[in-house]
Amino acid sequence: MVKDANPFTVLVRDLPVHRQFEVSSALVGEWLKGLPMRDALGAPDPDPQAGEGKADLDFYADGTHAFAKGTFKGYLTVACSRCVEPVRLELDEALMVTFMPPGEMPAEDDDGTAAASEEGPEVREEDLDVFPFDGEKIDLEPLFREQFVLSVPYAPLCREDCKGLCPQCGIDRNTATCSCEKPIDPRLAPLKGLKLPS
Ligand SMILES: [Zn+2]
Ligand SMILES: [Zn+2]
Questions:
Q1: Are strands 137-139 and 86-100 parallel, antiparallel or unpaired?
Q2: In angstroms, what is the span from residue 150 Cα to ligand 1's centroid?
Q3: Which ligand has the minimum distance to the alpha carbon of residue 80?
Q4: How far is the CA of 58 from the centre of ligand 2 (A)?
Q5: What global pTM score does this model have?
Q6: I want to staple 40 with a disulfide (CB 3.0 to 4.6 A). Which of 50, 79, 143, 171 is the partner?
Q7: What is the per-residue pLDDT across 125-153, written as a single tens digit (0 to 9) for each?
Q8: How far is the CA of 162 from the centre of ligand 2 (A)?
Q9: Ligand approaching nearest to the C-alpha of 176
Q10: Structure-model confidence comparison of residues 184 and 86, the more confident one
């Protein structure tokens, strides 16, 4: 109810309807802010390469529920966990989403995690396809946001055999060789560029 400027809303009284939405790189950059594999990139802000999304959805309702069915395609850019170079992750998802009154949302689980009523990356995967709505207006922003946030792997790789950075001198071993003798404790890799006392 706060932002009428939210472009990702569909009025239930307009259903059934077919709608397309585009998510801009500025917004994707905003949503991914604070994720380590995003921040590691040191990308400009706003980053035109942060990502993009396109949703193509059919909406319909059955009286108390609303449904969205279609596709979500796009990409996002995160850092390779070994060499910190950008990795482009493609999104191509089939969406089948149910919007239901908050009172009907699945009960809280043992761990006390609230079902998808809260925005943010804490939503469990099995809740992905169920979102609350007020019966009048469908807000798609949490859904779109999750397409990006939940697509970031724990340790993204630019390629399976990425050689990463030399833990001693920080050189990208995919593109250059250094004369460092032997690798030191890889846990020190993040300290690349730090001059070791000789
Ligand atoms: Zn890499
Ligand atoms: Zn080296």
A1: unpaired
A2: 20
A3: 1
A4: 54
A5: 0.77
A6: 79
A7: 454 589 999 999 999 999 999 999 999 99
A8: 15
A9: 2
A10: 86
**pLDDT > 80? residue 113:** no
The CA angle 30-35-38, to the nearest 5 degrees, is 75
Distance 85 CA to ligand 1 centre (A): 6
27 burial type by CB count under 10 A (0-12 exposed, 13-18 middle, 19+ buried): buried
Residue closest to 20 by CA, chosen among 31, 7, 30, 6 = 7
Which amino acid does the sequence have at 86?
A: P
* Of residues 58, 72, 64, 63, the one with CA closest to residue 17: 58
In this prediction, residue 120 has a pLDDT band, given cuts at 50, 70 and 90, of very low
Predicted pLDDT of residue 63 = 82
pLDDT of residue 104: 85
pLDDT at 109 over 70: no
User: What is the 3-state secondary structure of 120-156?
Assistant: CCCCCHHHCCEEECCCCEEECHHHHHHHHHCCCCCCC
User: 147 CA distance to ligand 1 centroid (A)?
Assistant: 23
